[in-house]
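Here is an idea for our session: we take a single protein and study its fold together. To get us started, please write out a protein record for me. Once you have written the record down, we can walk along the chain together.
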Amino acid sequence: MNKLFTVLALVFLLSKASLAQTQSIETFKSMGHEDDAIYGMSGASSFYLKISPLTEMNGSKLVLYFEPSQALIKEHSFINVILNDRPVYSAHLTKDSIQKVTINLSNEDLSPDKFLKIQIKTLLTITDDICRDLDNPAMWLKVKDYSYLSLVTNNKNLADKVNISNCFDSKRAIVYPADPTLHDLKAVAWAYSRLKKSSNKKIYMFEAGQVPDSVRNYVIVGNYGILPDDKRSLIKVTPQAGEGLLYLSKSMSTVTDTITHMVDEKGVMVAHRSVAEETVPTEILFITGGDDAGYDKAITALGNINILNSTFGDYLLINIAQNSFFKNVDENRSKLSLKQVGGTSDFLSGIGSLKNAYSFKNSDFNFTPKEIEIRFIGNYSGLSPGDRGYFNIYLNGLLISSEKLDASGKLNTSVTINRYQHHKYNTLESEFRFFPTNGICKNSFINFFGEVDVDKSYLESKNPFITSDLSFYQYPETFNTGTTRIVVSKNRAKYAAAAVGEIIYELNNNINSNNFPEFVYSDQVAAGDLKKYNIIALLDKDDPLMNEFPDAPIKFNKNFVLYNTDNNKTVYSLSDTVSTGLAQIFYGRSNNATLVLTATGSRLSDAFLAASKSITEQLSTLSSNVCVTDVNSNKYLFNINKSSHDNLEYVDTKSSLTRFWETYNLYILLGILILILLSFLYVRSRVQRSQELYND
């Protein structure tokens, strides 16, 4: 009998453990990584993957799929996998066209900031002659995007491991009141910005009471007094008047869900789905306050990344909140070190091409730069007589500078680029290129080294890009100077929530996030405010405030038509039935930056969001100031000059007679020609008849 109880207890414990643990598949593609090619004889690629705090690393697996070049000598080519700077796998390539490597993970593979750092390093061979293999374009290996992590989630650690500081990583939705106030809109915007910085996945917006059952982890905003009763009951701490509150509610629930397993079918990973019952966590982060004053404090804390990252509990009561990141006169951000834009000092060695990559945005500067000086400072091993070495600089894939290396071993070179060479978002590459003296290639394989000093190397804007008309190329950095006000039509507030979140994210998507706009309804804006502040307005096209922007390229409250200046064909008409977002940027009466967005059609939320996203993309023109986009990702850019409206026509400004003539003029002219012809034939027949009578 005792044995029977022991067996039953063991079965019970195992069943509880299985309910507490679930397994999930995260492909590289789902985490934002497409097929990644590694080129050259000796190459490397790195992946930084965010790991949930609920993940149990012991028992999880990393499954990598490689596609090597068909030209490689497989038995003389090698691949190495390094996790958290520790080597975990090395082997030569096999004959398979797609190769699979499975690595068991442990807690030692995870960095302190909960990232899994994966480095893939290769040593490839084609001819078995190092000197001949240099820069052979057939030397490559792809890391496939269906490589994946098989992660064990231990839900029993929910209470201990998940807190306010790390809960944003798992949330992809925001819930807000059906009739949002300005405070609600501001809370949604900052929550959206925080979620987007945590992940590149889509963020969903739901009105209170319309959250699907499948959505279990989300952020909910609203004053404590108006939260739904079933949600307010989850909050175990009651904020008082003047107090803000961030509260994380955590629980477990058993649900029936679809489980995805990746199965290897003839070298190709195929997703197989099955239905299973599993225990999943439910996390709701509340952003609220005892009253409007307290609610505003919670929102202010939400915009302070230092507060969020240091809140390791389940709730935070806020009595005093302020952001101290506002710029001062000395902090003009005209000179940025490569370290500030994310560069690291990597020691590179070998022969052939040795590259480092850096990324920077125009908005990292305090203004749109007209010219940028790029300076690299570093060290390298001095060249011997007969060696050939170069230091090359690439910008967005184009070679912009090349300098010959010498015996000094000191690197100090610069190049200045103009506004036509750099984009809104830029990729900068530095390359040491070394070829040893002929005949000693093999002996010199590891003798050369090079390193860029990212602290001393820098990007410096020489002068700002100033034009008489603003363009989307200058957004969002044109709002970096001065105070910005976000103005919203009251009847469009519920539809503008996601778009405002996108705007807040872009205003602070730089190396020194410090743009905290004020929020106001359009009917509360005084005439002088439009000159005093930078303005970002999300308006109903019939909002009376539209009439207060005399410098706007287009009057959105009038029916208009936009033409293609090349063929005079209509590109867009305001009367279109498709849900459309429209955006325009221009200088206001006091040379203050002004951005106006509006939306038409039945899907207003999607239209506003489409417009806010379109103007932040890598645009192909420097002068577009009007953007028209629909919810199907179709986008048109225009440059509407104040002094010339060659591709713009207002329909309402024409009389009914003029519009009738422009619509039917061809038919009218054709009718007149027919009447003239008939009249001619009639007169001719009468003349002929008269002549016949006269002859008789």
Remarks:
- Residues 1-19, 325-330, 650-654 have pLDDT under 50 and may be disordered.
- The first strand starts at residue 21 and ends at 27.
- The chain is about 20% helix and 35% strand.
